[in-house]
Write a structure and sequence with these properties.
Blueprint lengths: L2 H25 L15 H5 L29 H5 L6 E7 L2 H12 L5 H12 L1 H6 L2 E4 L4 H7 L3 H13 L2 E2 L4 E3 L11 H8 L3 E3 L1 H7 L3 E9 L3 H12 L4 E9 L9
Parallel strand pairs: 1-7, 2-3, 2-6, 6-7
Antiparallel strand pairs: 4-5
Helix pairs in contact: 5-8, 9-11
């Protein structure tokens, strides 16, 4: 066997081992050793996640404090006053102490087995959005950030979600046309300014989104600024409508415009 054959054999074995661990984590998450960043999830980690259940705002996915009944509006006051460019949004869980560690571990810790888990969460929480979608697209990273991080967390979730839902997966129809600062620590207005005009649809992508309902996928929804900018780019390229589904969203409601 040549040296190249040996390299390929080792890579294939590593991939197979990774998939084996991913399947095992999905079926029965093994115990997690305290303080070990790369360890698998323990059962307590799942129990701490605050999953979002109806009723939620149809426009931004925020949880309503109570069920207003059949005559209540399906959207919160903020969404009624100033709707997003995306038509509807859903989140699987609240972004809080119970979910933050899982999301950050996936986003920055390269813990890939969580990707299909998060895809299943979204498939359940955003079932109506997934059913209505013609295609599923991840919110993109700038090439330089992708190079540094080595993977796009939104794409890692969107890909298995599209496969399990039987929807077209648009890997690179939407691109980040310019590099932006991190959204962390910015106000709502600062976030909107940071991503204004940052996204565009490629010529090939425009042909694939035209006249279709697109479901955008991301990990966390904070103010909705990134999803808004992406939705505007898709709509300008001819998409019929855009929805947004995320793993987690912050609990704080969007402020009403002044």
């Amino acid at each position: 066997m040549s040296g190249h054959d040996g390299d390929w054999s080792a890579r294939l074995k590593a991939v197979a081992a990774g998939w084996g661990r991913a399947c095992a984590d999905l079926i029965l998450p093994p115990p997690m050793e305290a303080g070990r960043a790369g360890a698998s999830l323990e059962a307590d980690a799942w129990r701490q996640v605050a999953f979002l259940e109806a009723p939620v705002c149809d426009g931004c996915g925020a949880a309503f404090e109570f069920d207003g009944g059949m005559f209540a509006d399906s959207r919160c006051a903020a969404c009624l006053a100033k709707p997003y460019a995306f038509e509807r949004a859903r989140a699987a869980c609240v972004y809080d102490d119970g979910s933050r560690g899982l999301v950050l571990r996936f986003k920055h810790g390269d813990h890939q087995p969580l990707a299909p888990v998060f895809a299943r969460w979204i498939h359940r929480s955003a079932a109506d959005l997934v059913e209505a979608a013609d295609a599923i697209a991840p919110i993109p990273l700038h090439p330089l950030r992708l190079l540094a991080r080595r993977f796009n967390q939104a794409a890692e979730i969107a890909r298995p979600l599209a496969a399990m839902a039987g929807r077209d997966y648009l890997a690179d129809a939407l691109v980040r046309a310019r590099r932006t600062d991190s959204q962390g620590g910015k106000s709502g207005r600062g976030r909107r300014e940071n991503v204004r005009g940052a996204f565009s649809v490629t010529p090939t992508g425009a042909r694939r989104v035209r006249g279709r309902r697109i479901l955008l996928i991301d990990d966390v929804l904070t103010t909705g600024a990134t999803g808004e900018a992406c939705a505007k780019a898709l709509l300008e390229a001819g998409a019929r409508a855009v929805d947004l589904a995320v793993v987690a969203r912050v609990r704080t409601a969007r402020q009403l415009p002044m």
